[in-house]
Amino acid sequence: MIRLGVPSKGRLMQDCFDWFGARGVVMKRSGSDREYSGVVEGVEGVVPVLLSAGEIPRELAAGRIHLGVTGSDLVREQLAEDEVAEVAKLGFGQADLVIAVPNVWIDVETVDDLDAAAAAFRKAHGHRLRIATKYHRLVRDFLQAQGVADYQLVDSQGATEGTVKNGTAECVADITSSGETLRANHLRILSDGLIHSSQAVLWASRMAEWSAEDRAAMEQLVQRLGVRSPL
Amino acid sequence: MTPKAAIRAEGERLLAAFVQAGAVSVEADILQPAGTLLDLYGEDIRARAYVTDDPVRGEMMLRPDFTVPVVQAHMAHGAEPARYAYLGEVFRKQMRGSGRASEYLQVGYEVFDRAAPEVVDAEVFALFRDLLAGLDLRPVTGDIGILMAAVRGLETSERRKAALLRHVWRPHRFKALLDRFAGRAPVPAGRLQLLERLKAGSPAQLIAEAGTFVGLRSAEEIAARAEALVADAETPPIKATEAALLYDLLSLEAPAAHALAHLRGITPMLPAIAPAVDRFAARLEALAARGIDVATLAFEASHGRTALEYYDGFVFSFLAEGMPPVASGGRYDALTAVLGAGAFIPAVGGVIRPGLVARLKGAEA
């Protein structure tokens, strides 16, 4: 049986069910409203596994699920390139991981400015310029590729936009869809500060065991979904 | 796989040779405070070093190299001059599937000596050559001091020189800055808009108009950089002839003696490099005195300019096909000043990977 990990609640679950439903693969939660189990109709050999969206990358990497739907931001942050393969972009759950600085930093418009500001900041304050984020790997890879120095990542698992006002960071790297929360917290996105454009993606695990039956079921599924198997 | 015992035996042999050459054998803790290493290398090191957490001591790193603890120990209570040797594991994260070891032995030799730096450079290089003889390695040398001298001698603003020097070890960023300062790359659109805005009002006024002030970076700091940006936009580009010499220098690769002749040739046009070229010449003389053929020794002006390094003078590697550098080292005078809290001593050293030496010698299980 192909185990297909899907978000277990909220908007993400509904969008996910709708996407599969529109392609003739009907997913439903079974049992009571509170029970985390489901069924798939319209294709053989696939069982849904309802999971918290945040846990789906880990389950894909462990090979405990064959397929999974979760944000590309989480997968790129947590997994190595060869652990999963992209099956299809689902076109919902769009959000951007961006670098944003205080709007009063009238001298900082680009990543290049941020780098120069970081050098001066470190000289003046004796510590590296702090960037609050929960996406440590994506942010560090981005800044390393751009050759930015004299910064420091500080962990922020929530309310990241507030860290600047609270004095625990100088700027942030956070996920946003409209930028409204950033603006409300007096922050502005750098003109070239887009680190990752995220959306919900159907991933296939390269770490899971794919039996001949699983592969046959996968062929059926991708045909039904109108996509190609990356396996 | 080379057996661990064979690797350790090779390490012990090399350590004994370093001690024979006059070094004192020293130890260093495996758990190093992360703060020092992060301040030195920046966040980039997190991608390479193992970070762990201690409830009392805070963030710690599994020793990614010995240089920092050895320099710290020397700066704290070392007598001068000093020669140190060490042998132990270092830990580096590797890319999945790279096949590279994430834990391996390093044996090293470090010299802290104020006398004739070029002679000491040659001493270290010749010692490594002797210990690695017969392994058919390809030695490559470089000199980051020449590049830094060239930057310091540019006819441009101090701010631009400082920006270039800060990124000497990040070749990609360095090139981007040089292209911009030399007028070879267009000013990015974002920067042009920014300059337009900055010219539209005083910094204080623009800051006031930008809304609620948040963050630790003060209005004075913001205004100072805004003014510097406007001033920089009026700084003329680095002259084409001068820029051409610097690009030429960045890509210079030739046998050492030939490279020296080339550098002598361009010195009249870039007089600031003269002292660094004199040091290069003195080093080649010292190397020749130790029996090294400088007519064939490879020299690359950009050698050693990689992230997570701190060399600021002579650099060298001993290379074999299909493996990481078997040995590498160089001069790191500036590092001693950074870690020495005001104190400073010229320093040069290098490391050998006994595991690779043992593998080249064919020690198989």
From TrEMBL, chain A:
<dbReference type="Pfam" id="PF01634">
    <property type="entry name" value="HisG"/>
</dbReference>
<keyword id="KW-0328">Glycosyltransferase</keyword>
<dbReference type="GO" id="GO:0003879">
    <property type="term" value="F:ATP phosphoribosyltransferase activity"/>
</dbReference>
<keyword id="KW-0368">Histidine biosynthesis</keyword>
<dbReference type="InterPro" id="IPR001348">
    <property type="entry name" value="ATP_PRibTrfase_HisG"/>
</dbReference>
<comment type="function">
    <text>Catalyzes the condensation of ATP and 5-phosphoribose 1-diphosphate to form N'-(5'-phosphoribosyl)-ATP (PR-ATP). Has a crucial role in the pathway because the rate of histidine biosynthesis seems to be controlled primarily by regulation of HisG enzymatic activity.</text>
</comment>
<dbReference type="InterPro" id="IPR013820">
    <property type="entry name" value="ATP_PRibTrfase_cat"/>
</dbReference>
<keyword id="KW-0808">Transferase</keyword>
<feature type="domain" description="ATP phosphoribosyltransferase catalytic">
    <location>
        <begin position="53"/>
        <end position="225"/>
    </location>
</feature>
<protein>
    <recommendedName>
        <fullName>ATP phosphoribosyltransferase</fullName>
        <ecNumber>2.4.2.17</ecNumber>
    </recommendedName>
</protein>
<comment type="pathway">
    <text>Amino-acid biosynthesis; L-histidine biosynthesis; L-histidine from 5-phospho-alpha-D-ribose 1-diphosphate: step 1/9.</text>
</comment>
<dbReference type="InterPro" id="IPR018198">
    <property type="entry name" value="ATP_PRibTrfase_CS"/>
</dbReference>
<keyword id="KW-0028">Amino-acid biosynthesis</keyword>
From TrEMBL, chain B:
<dbReference type="InterPro" id="IPR041715">
    <property type="entry name" value="HisRS-like_core"/>
</dbReference>
<protein>
    <submittedName>
        <fullName>ATP phosphoribosyltransferase regulatory subunit</fullName>
    </submittedName>
</protein>
<dbReference type="GO" id="GO:0016757">
    <property type="term" value="F:glycosyltransferase activity"/>
</dbReference>
<dbReference type="InterPro" id="IPR045864">
    <property type="entry name" value="aa-tRNA-synth_II/BPL/LPL"/>
</dbReference>
<dbReference type="Pfam" id="PF13393">
    <property type="entry name" value="tRNA-synt_His"/>
</dbReference>
<keyword id="KW-0808">Transferase</keyword>
<keyword id="KW-0328">Glycosyltransferase</keyword>
<feature type="domain" description="Class II Histidinyl-tRNA synthetase (HisRS)-like catalytic core">
    <location>
        <begin position="11"/>
        <end position="250"/>
    </location>
</feature>
<dbReference type="InterPro" id="IPR004516">
    <property type="entry name" value="HisRS/HisZ"/>
</dbReference>
